[in-house]
TrEMBL record:
Residues 17-58 form the TadE-like domain. This is TadE-like domain-containing protein. It comes from the Bacteria. InterPro entries: TadE-like_dom. It comes from Aurantiacibacter rhizosphaerae.
Length: 165
């Protein structure tokens, strides 16, 4: 009996392998934190990229107000090309698309002191009408953890409204 108690005491005092056990507990947590930090920084970077593209479009609109559909399409194509990189954007329904990115540039109007925008220039009647160009950029980012069933894709919707008249 004494021999068994001495053996148990010796096992309790043995520290061999404790580092492996601690690492087995801590490593997965650190790995998940690193992956989460990487994905969060990728999401913030994409949001910044979309905001920069919208600011670029607003600057182009302020520099040369697009008076017709062809000029608005040029602005749309500039933004889409900026966001799509080597992929050539496709155009359908007046919107430029590549991958998950959609870019739309439309005229909108505001009547007098109203706070709401309308899409029809004749909606103001004979009153004062202000013209704006609305730039809409949408995108979707799927973080890696969404593939494992944790969370879902992140949708971005960046809008700029620039007064041109």
């Amino acid at each position: 009996m004494m021999n068994a108690l001495a053996r148990i005491a010796r096992i309790r005092m043995d520290e061999d392998g404790s580092m492996a056990i601690e690492t087995a507990f801590v490593a997965p947590v650190l790995l998940v934190m690193a992956l989460g930090g990487f994905e969060a920084s990728a999401m913030v970077a994409r949001q910044t990229e979309l905001q920069s593209a919208a600011a670029e479009a607003a600057a182009v609109v302020r520099a040369v107000a697009p008076e017709d559909a062809a000029a608005r399409n040029t602005v749309r194509d500039i933004v889409a090309t900026s966001l799509c990189g080597k992929t050539t954007p496709t155009v359908s329904d007046g919107k430029a698309r590549c991958g998950t990115v959609t870019v739309d540039v439309d005229p909108i109007y505001r009547c007098g002191t109203a706070t709401d925008y309308i899409t029809n220039a004749d909606g103001c009647g004979s009153g004062t009408r202000y013209k704006f160009i609305k730039i809409d950029i949408t995108d979707t980012y799927s973080p890696i953890w969404a593939e494992w069933g944790v969370g879902s894709a992140v949708s971005y919707d960046v809008n700029r409204t620039v007064q041109v008249g």
